[in-house]
Specification:
The protein is α+β, with helices and mostly antiparallel strands. It has helices spanning 13-25, 53-64, 69-82, 90-96, 103-111, 118-128, 154-168, and strands at residues 4-8, 34-38, 136-139, 142-145.
């Protein structure tokens, strides 16, 4: 199965639903390798808020600190997309990830500017991949993008995964588990 790149923004409710659906479907694709690529729907200096560059950095810090990424995604989406917490505030993010990793090390990493370039790099990668609406999924030359104001359906995502599974690997279920680990979501 081809590696699947997932572009999403933690403030986007369609991304929250799309990632939850993806995580529900993944057990049927045990060889799937997911590259989580958080982006900003509205990067600085755009006026639309909240800016989620700190959320992007938080993801990479969480990964580096060995946090449970599924639990991390759930906590960040709950804070940003559901509860509309101030995810531009490092102290708020520190509370959001409490219990998932060492909060002191997490906050020190944020304050030190760790992974500061990742939001811009990920935004550029999404632009290069032709992403316009989030969430967006890529596997080789296969693409699935959300529709403005609608996200992606479970049926669309399953069809995308089926196509990705046929790209360069054995049929679904025939490989051992691999390293695989829900506003409009419109990008600029």
């Amino acid at each position: 199965m081809a590696k699947i790149t997932v572009y999403y923004d933690y403030v986007c409710p369609y991304c929250k639903r799309g990632l939850e659906t993806l995580l529900d479907l993944l057990p049927a694709y045990p060889g799937a390798e997911i590259e989580w690529t958080p982006v900003e729907s509205h990067p600085r200096p755009e006026d639309f808020r909240p800016h989620t560059d700190l959320c992007v950095r938080a993801y990479y810090i969480a990964r580096e600190l060995g946090a449970d990424i599924k639990a991390f995604h759930a906590a960040l989406f709950r804070a940003a997309a559901e509860e509309r917490q101030d995810v531009e505030n490092p102290a708020v993010l520190e509370k959001v990830v409490e219990g998932l990793m060492d909060g002191g090390v997490f906050r020190a990493s944020l304050d030190a500017g760790k992974f500061a370039s990742r939001a811009g790099e990920n935004n550029d990668a999404a632009d290069k991949a032709g992403v316009w609406f989030l969430p967006a999924f890529r596997a080789g030359k296969i693409a699935l993008d959300a529709k403005g104001g609608a996200g992606v359906s479970g049926e669309e995502l399953k069809a995308f995964l089926d196509r990705a599974a046929r790209l360069n690997g054995p049929k679904r279920g025939s490989t051992p588990p691999g390293p695989a680990f829900s506003p409009s979501g419109q990008r600029r």
